[in-house]
Amino acid sequence: MAKKSDKDYLKEKGFLSQRQDDYFSMRLHTAGGNVSSDYLRAVADAADSYGEGYAHITSRQGIEIPFVHLDNTEDASNNMNSSGIGPGASGKKIRAVVACQGNRVCKRGLIDCQDICEKIDEEYFAEPVPYKFKIAVTGCPASCLKVQENDFGIMGFVEPVFVGENCIMCRLCENACEMSAIKIENETLHLDMNKCVACGRCVEACRKDAMQIKDQGYTIFVGGKVGKRPRMGDELLRTGNEETVFDILEKTLDFYRVNALDGERLGDVIDRCGMGHFREKVE
Ligand code: SF4
Ligand code: SF4
Ligand code: SF4
């Protein structure tokens, strides 16, 4: 049976101490916000058996069961393990990856967020790092998963190119563009790439193949965080290659481990060392 003094052990097992003495919130491992019905049934049973009959959905798509008494932590943990559910991460670790439904479900999805999320989670979840490290995958520039608020963010993109000879000036693309990046005046179409966020909606809207895909893939953001000193992530690069995404993630983690002071988030390390230096190391 775990003792109150086994704080690190309890944390490792996903138990976060509550304000009430001897009670813990049991954090469970999730990835990308998708959980099976079996997972949900196991959570419901555990909440009844060890908690107060409810589970808390966290801001990062995680699930916690509050009010697990110290005396029940071991049983609760074993019970979850026997259902194939591991503990969630806290402290100086790579946290559970969050993701939207991406192109498996969402009409606007440009990439398979769940697939990337699963691969990252499998390789990196709960790996030790200088401080917390958060990763998010979002299917398009709508950024429902707020990749700019994460240490490492991946966003789907589709960049358009206008092929004038096919155009019949029907304005479908102009109407589809929420960024006012397309203007048709005097039978001439202007595509302003300074306004374009590469959401690909104009390509989808065009029925004459006059708005085509120039480039597509993943936009990578680094150094974002919220909390007491928020910082928006910097757009690092765009790539059409999934392997490059993993390569950049690996190099970013190497950079972080080598350069971070204890308890420093990636964005602060980038600010201290310089974005130029960071780019040199990872690109
Ligand atoms: S980010 Fe894009 S793909 Fe993901 S849920 Fe939002 S609109 Fe859909
Ligand atoms: S890709 Fe999106 S933002 Fe860019 S021009 Fe097309 S609709 Fe507008
Ligand atoms: S939707 Fe296609 S055909 Fe219509 S104006 Fe735009 S580019 Fe031209």
Question: Could you walk me through the main structural features you see in this protein, from its secondary elements to its overall organization?
Answer:
The protein is an alpha+beta fold and 283 residues long. It has 2 domains: 7-82, Alpha-Beta Plaits; 98-282, Sulfite Reductase Hemoprotein, domain 1, CATH 3.30.413.10. It is 30% helix and 22% strand. The protein has 9 helices and 11 strands. A hairpin with a 2-residue loop joins strand 8 (182-185) and strand 9 (188-191). Helix 2 (37-50) runs antiparallel to helix 3. The longest helix is centred in the C-terminal third of the chain and has 18 residues, at 242-259. The chain starts with 6 loop residues before the first helix and ends with a helix. The model has no long low-confidence stretch (mean pLDDT 96). The structure holds iron/sulfur cluster (3 copies).
Features:
283 residues; alpha+beta; Alpha-Beta Plaits; Sulfite Reductase Hemoprotein, domain 1; 2 domains; five-stranded mixed beta sheet; four-stranded antiparallel beta sheet; 9 helices; elongated; binds iron/sulfur cluster
